Amino acid sequence: MPVRATPICCDIHKPNLRAGRIRYMNGNTSIYAGNNRVAWVTGAGSGIGRSVSTLLAQNGWKVAASSRSLDNLDSLRTQNEEHSVTSIPLDVTDACATHKAVNQIEDDIGGIELAILNAGTFQKTPLSDFSASDMKKIFDVNVFGVANGIQSLLSKSEKLKKIAVMGSLAGYRGLPKAASYSASKAALINFVEAIRPEAAKRGVDIVIVNPGFVKTRLTPTDLPPILGISSERAAKYILAGIESGELEIAFPKSFGYLMRVARQIPDDLYYKICRRIV
Length: 278
Known about the structure:
The chain is an alpha/beta fold. Helices cover 43% and strands 13% of the residues.
């Protein structure tokens, strides 16, 4: 039975990349055999969300693709005209609109079994240009956009089995000049860790996805090319992680290892390292 959430708006009365080797969500059906099951992807207009949407559609899922950009959604549908991709325009910061979007998907496409809550934003926030309003904008999308999605899903989706939340390796420690973004992703990592046991009792598995640098429009332009991976490869890592039932999907492996080491560094040493960076 779904969780009965409080009404939120007026009208609510090492990854294996070989497909099919491990079974999806400990069940009998691989994620690589969509069989017309329904997946909802936010932030689907570009980057990781677009690549995940395409990979799911190519593997037989009915994909409900959400984005603020109608042009991006139209091009995504054109790109996948031989597959089932439905545009669901959405600003995830709008709780009421998010609930309506979930209702629309459930009523018009079918019960959502898999949700990829990927919508996010990045903005450098050096202390010299810091403003609370800029930080709030980042949290509104990265944190409360996810919260809106989860509340709407748990109040409506009876077929829901899996939610993947897009965190970041940047959430492991505070990163100089990216304080707001880093803090928002740290919030998501802790949020998912906190709600996962309760969600599991309801039959819903929640996984945190922590990418390193992926080549998207949000990637810093001064990033050395060797550090970034393509969004298409990132999508394969994500689906492989979902397939294997991982609690955390972190990639690329080398950068993930580096950030795990950074997590263990004593605070005073980490502070000295960061002083050299800035």
